[in-house]
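Input/output pair, single chain:
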Amino acid sequence: MIRMVDRYIGKAAVLGILLVWVSLTLLMMMFSLLGELRDTSANYGTSDVFWFVLQTGPRAAYQIFPVSATLGSLLGIGSLASANELVAFRTAGVSRLRLAAAGMAGALLVTIPVMMMGEWVAPGAEQQARAYRLSQLVGQVVIGGPTGMWMRDGNNIVNIRRPILTADRGGQSISFQKVDIYNFDGFAGLKKITHAESAFFDGDQWTLENVYQADISPSGIAPTYVDRAPWNSGVKPELLESAVTRPSYMSLRVLWDQLEYMQSNGLDDQVYRSAFWEKVFYPFVIIALVLAGMPFVFGSSRHHNLGSRLFIGMTLGGLFMLINGAAQNLAAAYALPIALSTLLPSVLLTVVAVIFLRRSV
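Output:
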């Protein structure tokens, strides 16, 4: 009987989560579409906006899933409470903790493919979407991929291998590391190769640092090295920065690679480390939020209507995200372990939820 109850509760949770997840994802995409439509231009038209929003859909679905799991489990299992089915299970001797565990198992069943999408589908789609948007805005070909960003800039083919985000006075700043520029001279072919350790925009023009240049001619290759050199590019920095994939949208593999690079070069890796541990502890956030919503399903909460459950779920998810963000900011301010600050809110919320669930009705 217990296994039948587990499957029944789990099925209700899965159906509720899927319904809410699809609805909220479409809502997020609609808001994104409305925002992008305000930025349309001659090169970036309505069809381009629709394609951009469609490509960013997997990322939106991944981001909204924790809140969807909370709301969906509240609605799915809450519908059983409204029909007094949970009371019947409790009368048969099934504990509230067991019923909550069945709902959590259903949520984790959906979480697994969502995590796979967040690791293998969403990062690539997001990168391609940002590159596509930039290519339409600047009127040049831009390609995003695992080797960074490729774009055509006049007669140059540019590869920015390491766009780096760093924390800067409460915000984030972007620097461009490992820049390769291949200069072509019409039908004459490759004329010059330029490699720079970094590139920055000083307000007037782009400047390359630690530059190695190789001039190619029929007589041979003439290498030169300079500390700094101007980069005559028509790409505006704000457009280039908008095409950079944010750490929270990257896969664990790419984040780990970025962390290794930044550590070996003595760069500030706070933003990437925080995003890395957020993805590692993603399932723990789901567990904590679903369990935290379960006490509101039992007892007097079975008399709550749909609006009450939606309000409870949205409030619970919003408060948790605020507390989680505050914990990470405190860790950054006081040099505390980021992994601990990321996991601690989920652990505390889970412990509190279990305590409430173990109490008698």
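The CA atoms of residues 96 and 360 lie 9 Å apart. The chain has a mean pLDDT of 87.
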